[in-house]
Amino acid sequence: MKKIQFNMIAAAGVAILMSLNACKPKNAGNAVSSDAAAKAYVAPGKYDAFYNFVSGGFSGQMSVYGLPSGRLLRVIPVFSVDPEKGWGYSEETKPMLNTSHGFVPWDDLHHTEMSQTNGEIDGRWVFGNANNTPRVARIDLTTFRTAEIIELPNSAGNHSSPFITENTEYVVAGTRFSVPPDNVNGDVPINTYKKNFKGTLSFISVGKEDGKMDIAFQIQCPGVNFDLSHAGKGKSHGWFFFSCYNTEQANTLLEVNASQKDKDFIMAVNWKKAEEYLKAGKGRKQAVRYAHNIYNEKTHTATSEIRTEVTVLDAKELKDICYFMPCPKSPHGCDVDPTGEYIVGSGKLAALIPVFSFDKIQKAIAAKDFIGEYDGIPIIKYESALYGEVKKPGLGPLHTEFDGKGFAYTTFFVSSEVVKWNIKDLTVVDRVPTYYSVGHLCIPGGDSKKPNPKYLIAYNKITKDRYLPTGPELAQSAQLYDISGDKMQLILDFPTIGEPHYAQAVSADLIRAKSLKFFKIEENAHPYASKGEGTTKVVREGNKVHVYMTAIRSHFAPDNIEGIKMGDEVYFHVTNIEQDWDVPHGFAVKGASNAELLIMPGETQTLKWIPEKTGMYPIYCTDFCSALHQEMSGYVRVSPAGSNTPLLFSTGKNLPAADSVGSK
Amino acid sequence: MKKLSIILVIGTIIASCGGGGGSDVKPTTDAYDATKNEAPAGNPSYDPNRGEGKFTKVDIPATLDVAKASEGEKIYGVKCSSCHKVTDEKLVGPGWKGVTKRYAAEWIMNFVTNTDAMLNKDPKAQAQLEICLVRMPNQNLTDDDARNLYEFMRKNDGVK
Ligand SMILES: [Cu+2]
After folding, report:
1. Tell me: the pLDDT tens digits for A172-215?
2. Do A45 and B35 touch (CB under 8 A)?
């Protein structure tokens, strides 16, 4: 009797050990074939074939890589200040990081999504989400700069975003954390979650020409956690799909309490129907506060506006907008194939992949083939919505993209691999290891109607030793696979910033030709621009001193300023009057407590400086600009408050040295 | 001999990686090739009086075109004055006094619109670069800008 018990315990122990092993990423393997280097090689002076826009995770930025080389081309500051570019430090960019909570210098950028026309990537904009203080940003791909940021009310943890419809009609943003809506008192006991907490989906409209964002409407849903989403396309255009977890509605120790149920949900949303209800006046206006920030490329200045109203549709009252479909288990990915017929769910804790059929969902809804309701939302019978399941594909499916040739590629977090499977017959046809716990993957256009299936990039969740050690934290990583043949082939690792979440990739041809070279100085409408050295000046307005300054290889004008006094606020408005590609000038002041400026050709940027001591303050250009770059500098003299030092400014006046004259 | 064969082998590897047949890394047709950026030296067809650029023959009337000169002065203020004085004093670049007497109109207009190519090729431009040590920035002037600027230079040189 005792012996049997012991054996059972031992067996259980072995099982636990085995499953622990399975959770561990494989160690640094090297299963590459000999031609891998050639496939990823881009010769010096040659360009990459693809741009890869990668989320910067907790860095708050977006990074741009060339593929197949894996070269880092640019880090675009979005939700975090970036001293390299003066982002969030210059007076012009500070408003971009304004929120209803005031200036927020950091966020957590999780996903990237490119604009589409007719279901194909059009190369105009790439969107990114802020997970922490819920926001969505639009990056203009002519300038590779953040053009607009909109905050989301009634949300907390903006995770299932920014996914878009096939003509960029809407960018959606589903809340990760359900919370009490903004217009009610949130000062309630946390354990009243089921009663007081709601999950909100935001539909942000995007201007057809200018890309301007606006919260068209929100849908109030039951309090669960929304994780990811994707728009329908083709036949399922007009619908959106969101994965949900914590349908247990737990509010503590979610790692146990939100993984109780065998199935959570994918929510299908009929947004065309929601539009109809909106038009019919079924929405209710709700008082909220959220920031809307726009960067104007003519004035080189951002403005921030606080908005105070949003229209909310209630999914519980308007019965035919939202439907739940059971999905095993703690679903993360929610991906729609290029035809729009198949919706692939991925349960982080599941050992199979459910594939839903859009046609079957429609039939089930028409036939009211429901197994009940969840907080007022109908639940479609699992078998009625299901096309089929991919059996035993691996452990912990996370995210799926498509090649447009009938195959799907799914990442497996727990078993650390990418699995290729046939969408029609649901059989696994190939698998490759990832050497770390893999998260999202990306195929160029892999979530659009027209994938460009040359490469697949798999992004890590938990870093492993793919590179030289760098202290306790290792480099985050992406792995590049050639998927042009029947078998996937690993050809390159490349490091990434922050934690890479989702990414988008697109043929370089679509972006490169439209890239802006410089801002035309004639069109510079900044109120403090200096168009030529003849217009530079220093103007005192009370205790504010405005320095109208120009930068060109290799000097500033003016470069000698005297008559600044303690108590002054000095605004250096520096205009870079170069008119050629890639000639930024930097501007730094000794002791300045914000940062530097980096001013692009034809642009004006402002550094605000409040001197804290009298004395002599050198200024200089921070970006090596010519053989005489080191000489690109100047002096600012700060005198005591109330002294009578006259306001003087000059460049190259070649005044005789006045060594005998001391300061007063 | 050994050295030569190693170079040959490396050369072959690079060629096979560079995106030719067999390789999957295809350079896009208009890929920028940094190695071809420098203009070939000693071009026998090069005319040092005219320079290189789109201006081959510019008709300049004997008297000053006042309207053009005044347009040119505006451009000078925005794009040129930070580096060039209208006297003969060198600032970052040479002073402009007498410039229309030293160079043909075509040369000047080609230089200001096709600066990089001229600096790479023209002996007189290169001689100036040795003195100034700052390559003149391409200020993206239009053809009209160049003509107007030239007229302002003529005015500066006393043409009435
Ligand atoms: Cu500089």
Report:
1. 999 999 999 999 999 999 999 999 999 999 999 999 999 999 99
2. yes
How close is the Cα of B84 to the center of ligand 1, in Å? 17
Whether the Cβ atoms of residue A516 and residue A495 lie closer than 8 Å to each other = no
Tens of pLDDT, residues A30-41: 666 778 999 999
Taking the centre of ligand 1 as the mean of its atom positions, its distance from the CA of residue A143, in whole angstroms, is 21
**Which residues lie at CB < 5 A from ion ligand 1?**
A 585, 621, 625, 632
Residue A364 half-sphere exposure toward CB, CA atoms < 13 A? 24
Mutation site, B24, B29, B130, B152, interface A, largest A CB count within 10 A: B24
In this predicted model, what pLDDT tens digit does every residue of A336-367 receive, in sequence order?
999 999 999 998 888 899 999 999 999 999 99
Q: At what angle do helices B105-113 and B143-156 cross, to 10 degrees?
A: 130
Q: Of A415, A243, A219, A440, which is closest to residue A311 (Cα–Cα)? A: A219
Task: Quote ipTM for the complex.
Answer: 0.75
| Burial (Cβ within 10 Å: 0-12, 13-18, ≥19) of residue A331 | buried
Q: Tell if the CB–CB gap between B18 and A43 is shorter than 8 Å.
A: yes
Question: What gap in Å lies between CA A319 and CA A447, rounded to an integer?
Answer: 29
Do A45 and B32 lie within an 8 Å CB cutoff? yes
In this model, does residue B39 exceed pLDDT 60?
Answer: no
First-residue to last-residue Cα distance in chain A: 100
Angle, to 10 degrees, between the axis of helix B143-156 and the axis of helix B66-75?
Answer: 100
Looking at residue A509, its amino acid is: D
Q: Give per-residue pLDDT as tens, A384-433.
A: 999 999 999 999 999 999 999 999 999 999 899 999 999 999 999 999 99
